[in-house]
Amino acid sequence: MENPVIVAIDGPSGTGKSSTSKAVAAKLGLSYLDTGAQYRAITWWMLNNGIDVDDPVAVADSAGKPSIVSGSDPANPTITVDGVDASAPIRTQEVTAAVSAVSAVPEVRTRMVELQRAAGAAAPAGIVVEGRDIGTTVFPAATVKIFLTASAEARAARRSGELKGALSVADTQAALVKRDAADSGRTTSPLAMAADAVEVDTTDLTLEQVIECIVTLVEEKRAPR
How far lies 131's CA from each of 49, 74, 114, 153, in Å? Predict the structure, then answer.
């Protein structure tokens, strides 16, 4: 039996990680995990439970409390917090504004990494995992590591489209740049490209081209030698 395949897809917001990761998982018959959704889920729980998200001690003390369960079907990825469907509420601007602060707390990252590794171990054929520290921290021995990048302008235009104009492209770009700085500058598991990752700049590529590129890389790794 083949060893399970782990595909790590990292990169900042707006590079197409989610669309790419789900499509790659579906094409290759693999499970899927959005680690960003897990960090959003714990942030949403903190906000709902009156935890001061700017107080690292309060956040650390609560990191183990919520039960977060991620579905692994790329066609219908689900996430529940204490049994409640959280897929819509975790995408609000309030959560987006707070998630970097919560994600920077080491106890939160330790808890999430445990969940992420457990998801990988439970995927019989393998899994596509998207995030910011997958190839560097969560699965340093991943079969294939991809780091998606794109120009700030392209990322802002995409994200603004996803938000259906709730923020202007300029405001979206400012928010992305601020989040990049927070995620890259944190002490624990910062956003960074693994030394053995393949960088894919999606600025001028269609989604189909990006998917094809990654599927080809994975199939080459899986091919018998």
Answer: 25, 15, 14, 21
